Each structure stands twice: as structure tokens, then as C-alpha cells.
Amino acid sequence: MAKPEVLIFENTQLLVEAFTQHFIKLIMEKPRDFSVALSGGSTPKVWFEHLAKNHQDDIPWNKVHFYWGDERCVPPEDDESNYGMTKKYLLDRIDIPKENIHRAQGELAPKEASDVYAKDICKNLRVDKVPVFDLVILGMGDDGHTASIFPHQIDLWNSKDFCVVATHPVSGQQRVSLSGKVINAARSIAFLVTGANKAEKVREILSNEKVAATYPASLVDPDKLTWFLDGSAASEINQNA
Q: Are 231 and 8 in contact (CB under 8 A)?
């Protein structure tokens, strides 16, 4: 595993501001369309609100293509829809072409939603052996899951398919998720992780502790990986190591 860059910020707002500059830099470096797979969760919501309020005009939204790293198998208007959250807090507030939005259709039957989404990704992204995103944004659960691949289904990470159907270990809710080979093929990956409840897993993964191998988040290994952490999430790591 290549050594990731680890950036630590005092609070979520400072993290979001720094990640925004990282995001803009990546977009500007790309001469043509820029593809990004988004994450759900509380930190991306703060980021979406920040973009909508402060960056409506200085980002070339016409070249940005939004995808999602995972989606719950619910209709887009459902409160649990990752797409729905992004639409409410970002997409409805910026000027972006409708054809630049590539959502997983959570209202379909799970396997159908997964297959249709995989076809859409392959249609719109250059595919050699695996479709390549310019950026994949990931969160991490306090159980070490990322995207919607949970520890009890960690074998889904190595699926031969580009998209998989995963099941939440508690609720039983089914979700469509990018597989590990698509995630790791991205040109760049950013983890956005906040909160003290993530600190133990952050330490175990960044220190390569043996137990970390049971966490899907530990399997993220692209050419370029950056962890954006707030102080609480970073509280157990040795920052002088």
C-alpha cells in the first residue's frame, strides 16, 4: 500500500474549506470533463452546502460529471437517498447540465439498479479493463466500512463486477456500491472522516494494525490517496510518526 497523505484540521468547516480547494485544483488540472463519485453522510452534506453558498460561479460546473460511490435502494425523493441529499443541498443550487448527473436508480430492483448503473458508468467513462474516475470521495463508518461495503461482506470488495449489491448489517437495507476494483482504479481518492467515533478505526488503518485487514476502508489503495480528518477523528494517531 502506498503511503497516503494525511491532513488534519481543527474542525469540519476547516476540513471542508481545504477539501474544496483540493477539489477545484483537480478540476482545473483536467483539460476536459471531470468525473467524481460522491459519498453520502454528514460531512459531504456540509461540503455541498459550502459549495452551493460560496462556489456557484468559480467552478466550471459544465465540465463536472457527478456519480455516486454508493446509493441506497430507495426512490430519489426518499430522505435516505444519497442522490436526493446532493440534489437538495447542491445540485438544485448550481448551474449544472442535467446530462452531467449520473445517479444510481435506487427505485429499481437492486440487481437491476446495479447493472444499469454499471452500464451507465462504462458508457460515460473511458474503460480499458476498469472505468476510471478522476476522483472518488469516500467516507468511513465507525465499523470500518466504506462506500456500502461492510465488514460482513468484505468479499464484495474483490467482485469481478463494477457495481455490487450490498446489505446493511443491521437494517437489512440493500444498496448499490462501486466495487473495490473500480474504487482503486480512480486517479485520486479522498477520505473525508470526522468524529471521535471514527478515531480507533483511523488509527488501526493508518498504522496498518493487523485487525485493519477486516475493514473494507483499509483496502482502499489507489495511486493517490488523501485522508482529510478533523481533530477528533485523528485523536488516536501518532502525528509525529
A: yes
User: Comparing C-alpha atoms, which of 82, 221, 216 is closest to residue 149?
Assistant: 216
What is the rounded distance in angstroms from the CA atom of residue 238 to the CA atom of residue 159?
A: 34
> Rounded to whole angstroms, how far apart are CA atoms 87 and 77?
10
H/E element, 214: none
Give the pairing of strands 34-38 and 135-138.
Answer: parallel
pLDDT digits (tens, 9 = 90+) for 146-164: 999 999 999 999 999 999 9
Residues 84 and 221: their CA atoms lie apart, in Å, by: 29
Q: What whole-number distance in Å separates Cα of residue 175 and Cα of residue 170?
A: 13
**Terminal-residue alpha carbon distance, the chain:** 17
Is the torsion defined by CA of 85, 45, 219, 153 positive or negative? negative
154, HSE (Cβ side, Cα atoms, 13 Å): 14
pTM tops 0.90:
yes
Q: How is domain 5-55+67-128+143-195+207-224 classified at the architecture level of CATH? A: 3-Layer(aba) Sandwich (3.40)
218: left (phi over 0), alpha (psi -120 to 50) or beta: alpha
C-alpha cell, 104: 444510481
Which residue's C-alpha cell is 470526522? 194
Nearest to 154 by CA among 72, 229, 237, 211: 211
Domain locations in the chain as residue ranges: 5-55+67-128+143-195+207-224
